[in-house]
Structure formats: structure tokens, C-alpha cells
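Design job #97: recover the sequence.
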């Protein structure tokens, strides 16, 4: 009979990180996302400006809730929020799936954004502290990449299922499927082990310390780069379905299939995060990610249907690298007692920037057909990505004393 107190075999993840991967595969799998544009515009008659306002409210609600929830996670531990977040998301999805009033959907999107903020930051903080508690700090990037991979595979399966369910039963059914997935995520989170931090979970994070760390040059660089990539990726993501419709692809099974493919690409890109990071370093990897975005946007401005999937895949490669690189870069630079608050602050800045941009863009020009506005938008995004990518590459601060990723054995799991 095996000894329950024996250490895990070399290379085997401990129970906390193993179960966390399952949670990551469920908690971000919103099966209604591949049909969201159709659900709100074609099925319910909202115009393009209203559609963008829905998402603007979603992200701005996340912004308002991020820091308070980060404070709660640092004060009481991350696990309660990892349980509560999916439960509130399930309630929000239920309303979004069945409401026909724009105001009701707007309110539900605000609730959904606030609920998403519960697990944004708390998830990475929980995983990082689980890895550190197991004496594997040098493997933090690897574990973040593995969890990100599980998250992306979960999202890709949900995308495929959501497209097929919506095609067969209507877009409302994709929202109902998402409710069931969120309930499953809450059950898994309930089973995550509590992390002991020697009483640190009982000490409230100090806002003065959070502010001091946030304005340090090396931390500002991480937050600025992460925000830039986040905004580009989110803008690209919001254009996926309008681009498909503009190219004559109206079958929702194809919408789900395309998003499934893209998330699979991002998941496989996450396999190589540590390898790319070791070869290019933090500075080179950060520049490479933005360069991928610029190339994708430039191609989409003039490409046709045949180039659509490969060009969108470039964005997903960038997505596969962004999360583990951006989160781990911040984790290496900040202290543990305010970790979740600072990770939440990183998300606050990124989501606030994107929410405000959506609010600005939700004007009358988006009531025009997508094919009339997509080319100039893509050209503008390509130019902006080139300029900002060069800027962050030039401003990158060298981080002294950071552990070398993969130092134990140099292997990805």
C-alpha cells in the first residue's frame, strides 16, 4: 500500500496543482462566446453600438470589482473566491441566455464582469503560492503555462460544443451549457486544498505597499506591456465573428469550430512558452508577442477567406504566450502578502483600457456592415502594434535575481 505521506515522484505535480488544472479547464469555458455576436445582434436585434456597450460594461464592471476582490483574496485566501466566482457567473449566464431586453442584458453583463473579477488574479496567486509551497518556485512559469494550456483546451472544447448546440437548439442553449460548466467549476474549486501561509492569509494587504510596488519601473513595464497585448488581443477577438460574417461564413458550427481551432493553437503555443522564454529572454519574448499581433492585423486588412484562419492563428500564438509570461513576470517582481492585489491591479489596468476603448468605439459607425469598417480598423491596429511593440522592447528593464525557468530539469510537462 503506498505511503500517503511520501513525496510525489519526480516530475509529478502535487495534488493542488493537478486539481487546479481541472479548475482552469472549466472556469473560463464560456460556451456562448463563439455565438455571442449572433446571439445579441441577429437573434435579439441589438445594433453594433449596443453590442460594444454590452462588452464595455462587462469590462468596466470587472475593473471596479478587481481590486476589492483581490483584497479579499489576500485577506481571506484565494479559494473562497475560486468557488464563488463560477457560481455568480452561472447566474449571470442564465439571465443573458434568456433576457430579450437590452437593459436586462446590460445589467447581467455587469454582474458577469464583477463575477469574472473574483477569479481574475486569485487564480494565478493560488497557483503560484501552491508551487512555492512545494519548493518549486523556479517552475512557476512552467506551471502557469500548463494551467493556461488546460484553460485553453477547456475553452476550445466549449467553443466547439457551443457552436453545435447553438446550431441545433438555438443560441440560448449555448448559454445554458455554460451554466452547467460553471457549476462544475465551482465543485472542483471546493475540492482545492487550502494553502497554509503561516497566518499570512489573516493579514490584510497594505494598500501603501501595493501602491509602492505598482509604481516601480520594473512593475510598471510588466503592467504596461500586459495591457498593450491584452487590448490588442481583445480587440482582435471581438472582430472574429464580424470578420467571419463579412467573409460569408454564417453557419454557427463554423463559428464554434474556428474558435475551437484558435484556442487549440493557443494551447499548443503554451507548450513552448518556457522554451521560447529561455531562448529569447523576457525582453525578446515580449517583443515577439507584439510582433505576431502586428503581422496578423496587417494580413487581415488585405487577406481573404483562405488566409483568415492562419492569420487569426498568429493572434492565438500570442495569446498562448501572453498570460504565462505576463503573470509570471509580475509574480517574480512582487511580494507575497499583496500578490493577488497586484495581479488584480494588472488586470484592472488592462481591462479598464479595453473597456474605455470599446466605449469610444461604440458610436454610430459600428452600425454599418462589418465589411465596410474592418479594413481600416485592421490597418490602424497593425500600425499601433508596431509602434507600441518597439516602445516596450526599448523600455524593458533587466530583472536581477529572477529564477531561471525550467531550472530543475528543463522539461515542459
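Job complete. Output follows.
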Amino acid at each position: 500500500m503506498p505511503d500517503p505521506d511520501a513525496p510525489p515522484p519526480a516530475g509529478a505535480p502535487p495534488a493542488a496543482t493537478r486539481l487546479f488544472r481541472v479548475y482552469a479547464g472549466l472556469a473560463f469555458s464560456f460556451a456562448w462566446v463563439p455565438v455571442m455576436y449572433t446571439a445579441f445582434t441577429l437573434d435579439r436585434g441589438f445594433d453594433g453600438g449596443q453590442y460594444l456597450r454590452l462588452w464595455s460594461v462587462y469590462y468596466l464592471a470587472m475593473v471596479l470589482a478587481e481590486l476589492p476582490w483581490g483584497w479579499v483574496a489576500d485577506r481571506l485566501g484565494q479559494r473562497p473566491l475560486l468557488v464563488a466566482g463560477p457560481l455568480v457567473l452561472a447566474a449571470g449566464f442564465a439571465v443573458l441566455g434568456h433576457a430579450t431586453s437590452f437593459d436586462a442584458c446590460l445589467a447581467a453583463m455587469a454582474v458577469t464582469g464583477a463575477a469574472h473579477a473574483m477569479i481574475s488574479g486569485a487564480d494565478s496567486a493560488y497557483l503560484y503560492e501552491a508551487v512555492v509551497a512545494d519548493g518549486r518556485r523556479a517552475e512557476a512559469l512552467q506551471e502557469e503555462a500548463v494551467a493556461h494550456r488546460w484553460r485553453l483546451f477547456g475553452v476550445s472544447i466549449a467553443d466547439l460544443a457551443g457552436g453545435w448546440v447553438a446550431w441545433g437548439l438555438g443560441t440560448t442553449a449555448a448559454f445554458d451549457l455554460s451554466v452547467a460548466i460553471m457549476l462544475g467549476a465551482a465543485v472542483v474549486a471546493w475540492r482545492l486544498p487550502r494553502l497554509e501561509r503561516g497566518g499570512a492569509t489573516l493579514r490584510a494587504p497594505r494598500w501603501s505597499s501595493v501602491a509602492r510596488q505598482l509604481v516601480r519601473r520594473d512593475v510598471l513595464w510588466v503592467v504596461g506591456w500586459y495591457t498593450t497585448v491584452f487590448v490588442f488581443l481583445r480587440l482582435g477577438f471581438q472582430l472574429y465573428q464580424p470578420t467571419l460574417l463579412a467573409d460569408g461564413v454564417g453557419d454557427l458550427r463554423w463559428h464554434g469550430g474556428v474558435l475551437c481551432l484558435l484556442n487549440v493553437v493557443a494551447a499548443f503555443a503554451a507548450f513552448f512558452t518556457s522554451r521560447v522564454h529561455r531562448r529569447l529572454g523576457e525582453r525578446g519574448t515580449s517583443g515577439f508577442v507584439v510582433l505576431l499581433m502586428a503581422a496578423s492585423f496587417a494580413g487581415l486588412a488585405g487577406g481573404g477567406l483562405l488566409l483568415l484562419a492562419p492569420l487569426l492563428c498568429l493572434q492565438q500564438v500570442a495569446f498562448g504566450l501572453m498570460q504565462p509570461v505576463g503573470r509570471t513576470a509580475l509574480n517574480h517582481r512582487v511580494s507575497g502578502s499583496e500578490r493577488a492585489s497586484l495581479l488584480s491591479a494588472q488586470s484592472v489596468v488592462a481591462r479598464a483600457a479595453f473597456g474605455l476603448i470599446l466605449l469610444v468605439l461604440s458610436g454610430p459607425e459600428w452600425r454599418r456592415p462589418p465589411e465596410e469598417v474592418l479594413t481600416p480598423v485592421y490597418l490602424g491596429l497593425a500600425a499601433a502594434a508596431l509602434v507600441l511593440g518597439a516602445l516596450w522592447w526599448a523600455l524593458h528593464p533587466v530583472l536581477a535575481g529572477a529564477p531561471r525557468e525550467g531550472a530543475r530539469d528543463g522539461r515542459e510537462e
